[in-house]
Amino acid sequence: MHTTAATTVPRSLRNRLIAGAALVGVSLTGLAACQLPTSSATVRSASAVQIDKADDTPDDSPDDTVPPSTTEPPVTNPPVTLPPISLPPVTTPAPAPEPTVPATVPATPAAIPAGALDLGDGVYVPVTAGWTGTATDGVVHLTDGTMEVLIQVVRRTPGESPQLVLDEYVAASIDPLGTVSFGPATLRWSTDTPRPAMEYGFFYTTFDPAATDGKGLAGSASAFIRDDGLTLVYDVWAPASVTGSLSDESFNALIDSFLFAPEVAAPAALAIVPDFRVTTANAIARLDGTAGFTAAPGFVIQAATAEYALAGSATSEIAVVRTSGHPDQVDALATGMATTAQLLDGVVFAEDQWFGEADSLGVAGSSISFTAGNRSGSVVVFLDTTNGNAYTLLTVSDGAPGASVDAAALAFMQHSMLNSFGNIA
Fold first, then answer.
1. Which residue from 87, 16, 67, 72 is spatially nearest to 39, judged by alpha carbons?
2. How many CB atoms lie within 10 A of CB 326?
3. Which of 9, 247, 305, 378 is most buried by its number of CB atoms within 10 A?
4. H/E stretch holding 169
């Protein structure tokens, strides 16, 4: 069995997790957290704010605009149960499907069909049955009454990193939503025909303190980038309980028109980059690679290293510890339980343990709940069965099980951590 060497762990008078209470050899650094406004994140505006374009964009090109967002006053939610055992499936709007690309380029760009919305530079999107749409200053907004899609075409510098355009979009349109959890931006699709192009995208979730799981809106934002710098920004979002996507008819016509649109600048090689985290105004407790979680309102990041992260509020804490050398889930959860007993006094674990199946990447979850004097919480472990590495998520709050005033925030941060990594390096 994988074991952790015994250490002398400092504890506060209130039996709290503190920076410095970690495994042997882990160096912790206290960080000042940036506290963001709380948002119920159930409404998002489709009016426009500015996003930069390349300096050589002609003056007659479409305005480069993206939607801003609105925030609502904080919601005081009643105490809810901290979910200790089962991990619900992640539900987000489906990312843009992989396009079907014709093999040859026509001699002239196709005319914009009647009823389609013009994005400029020869790019358009049809509005299919069940959807309505508007085009304002080069920004197209589509909705079916529940899902929202925002599309914009901009001219960017050929060969630039996809992170530049995604970072600008996040700053202009997503950060103003308030507290947001971001997944890593990944290469979702690429093609060489009819010209080199690629798609980088990421998932995101807004915080809603009135929701039991802390999730408000769930979205997927992408940048489709051609080798001549023509870029299509595509953002789809809906309440976190909703799944779906733009119709295949609309989406395929959109991507085809984008790929076959006239060249706008001398081409350069596409900048294929490793997975990355977008830059955000949100306070992120970063670990190694893309792993980390967004701090919910009221939580201050107290430590963040490659091996350990900690954030706390007046009544609750969440800690993430990276471990390795686990032969199976049982060992990984046992190590997480031992770490919990090391960090907190008087820990009594529940009898029931939960073990989940491995996902497509080989990562499997397990969990158990506990009490510690007048506090209670849960241990959730994610084990990469391909290499034996694991993340242990420990959450603890004042009061009996089900009495945490931070339950929504803790659930949101658990979700944020879960969706921040693929394999555990």
1. 72
2. 23
3. 378
4. helix 162-169
Strands 300-304 and 308-312: antiparallel
Residue 81 CB partners (closer than 8 Å, separation 6+): 212, 401, 402, 407
Phi and psi, residue 24, nearest 5°? -60, 135
Q: Is the pTM of this model over 0.70?
A: yes
pLDDT digit string (tens) for 9-46?
A: 222 222 344 443 333 222 222 222 222 223 333 456 54
Q: Which stretches in the chain have pLDDT values below 70?
A: 1-110
What token pair was written down for 398? 């004042």
Strands 49-50 and 65-66: antiparallel
Cα torsion angle, 137, 140, 145, 146, sign: negative
Cα gap 405→78, rounded to integer Å: 7
CA 12: distance to chain centroid? 33
**Separation of alpha carbons 211 and 339, rounded Å:** 30
> Which CA distances in Å does 374 have to 13, 44, 84, 404, 406?
13, 40, 17, 11, 15
Find where tokens 């940036």 sit. 34
**One-letter amino acid identity for 337?**
M
Neighbouring CB atoms inside 10 A of 70's CB total: 14
Residue-wise pLDDT tens digits, 354-402: 999 999 999 999 999 999 999 999 999 999 999 999 999 999 999 999 8
The vertex-262 CA angle with 259 and 268, nearest 5°, equals 75
Strand partners, 350: none
Q: Which two tokens stand for residue 389?
A: 């590495």
Q: Read out DSSP for 91-117? A: --PPPPPPPP--SS--SSPPPPPTTPE
Nearest 10 degrees: CA dihedral of 119, 188, 324, 331? 100
Query: Architecture of 284-418 per CATH?
Result: 3-Layer(aba) Sandwich (3.40)
